[in-house]
Amino acid sequence: MSPALKSGIIGPMESNSGAVSELFFNPRHVGEAGEPRFIGRSGSFQCGAILRVSLHIDEAQRITEAKFKAAGCSVLVAAASLLIDNVIGKTTGEAAAVAQHLDHLAEELGTLPAERNECVLLACEALVSAIRNYSDSARDEWEGDEALICTCFCVSERTIEREIQENALRTIAQVTAACSAGGGCRSCYPLIEDILEEVNGKW
């Protein structure tokens, strides 16, 4: 029995990729991150795969520990293991940016069947979901003088309002380009939309 199955990872071996085989039979980061942990989940209706990612994040917003549990194929296990390799030590904003580059992660896994690209997407979705969980918690606990909108890049409401006013911004993409808000896990998108509507409505 493979170490993956002994660790509670359930899934068949379905790829001949050397990287996938190695990460399936010798998975890294399996289990639960230490408390306080932030949980993200993803799943596929098509194949029934489920992935759970847990993160421990320090006061500098760096991911100091990340773990996963999976029920799915070998590509899902490999993608989760490799993705976590790439984000440990990064800030939540940097990690979210890594998760948005699916092609790069897929390339590291080697040649995959087209239908297995969804497995890479599931890994990225679970990670971003965990980061959003953290972001929502950090926003709720924020005690600064200004409302914190983007926790990934520590951008306040006042900063976003100023950028919108001074540069006549109309879209979230323009706000992100101007001050990075919304460039991470994107949990702040609804808040940025509200600020855009409020500020622009005053003109």
Explain how this protein is built.
- The chain is of the alpha+beta class and 203 residues long.
- The chain folds into two domains: 3-136, Alpha-Beta Complex (Sufe protein. Chain: A), CATH 3.90.1010.10; 142-201, Orthogonal Bundle (Arc Repressor Mutant, subunit A).
- The chain has helices spanning 3-6, 18-25, 74-87, 92-99, 102-109, 117-141, 157-167, 172-179, 189-201, and strands spanning 38-43, 50-57, 63-71, 148-150, 155-156.
- Strand 2 (50-57) and strand 3 form a beta hairpin.
- Helix 3 (74-87) packs across helix 6 (117-141) and helix 7 (157-167) packs across helix 9 (189-201).
- It is elongated, with a radius of gyration of 19 Å.
- Mean pLDDT is 86; it is low at 1-8.
Name of the CATH first level of the largest domain: Alpha Beta
What profile does the largest beta sheet have? 3 strands, antiparallel
Shape: elongated
Distance between the termini: 66 Å
Q: How much strand content do the residues show?
A: 5-15%
Radius of gyration: 19 Å
Q: What's the CATH topology name of the largest domain?
A: Sufe protein. Chain: A
Count of all domains: 2
Q: How do the strands line up in the largest sheet?
A: 1-2-3
Q: Give the helix level as a range of percent.
A: 40-55%
Give the count of helical stretches.
9
**Global structural class:** alpha+beta
